[in-house]
Amino acid sequence: MGLSTHVLDTMHGGPAAGMKVSLFTTTEDGHATLVKSFTLNHDGRNPDGPLYDNDSLQRGTYRLVFDVKGYFASKHVELPEPNFLNLVSLDFGVAHRDQHYHVPLLVSPWSYSTYRGS
User: Fold this and answer.
1) What pTM was computed for the model?
2) Which listed residue, of 41, 50, 52, 82, carries a Cα 20 to 30 Å from 96's Cα?
3) Which phi and psi angles does 72 have, rounded to 5°?
């Protein structure tokens, strides 16, 4: 299955439809290269399916960047300026190309949580 992500809006109790997300490959020295940017669908997922399938996923390090501030602003949530969370970046590693790496994000304007899902 490769690499996938899913975002749930814990403030409103549902998928974070419309959130903008970017995927990067990263290097040990911190350099990041944009792979793709996309907007989450009605289910809080990439509309094109997995970000990588098993054949395309490579061993290495990656970064997902979630536009939390932009998403909650689009939902007309009154946010302080500056907002507590703006962009949430998750850096993670892929050690086994034959396994599924699912990176979910549970998010509100004030907190987030993630884990390696199945």
Assistant:
1) 0.96
2) 41
3) -70, -30
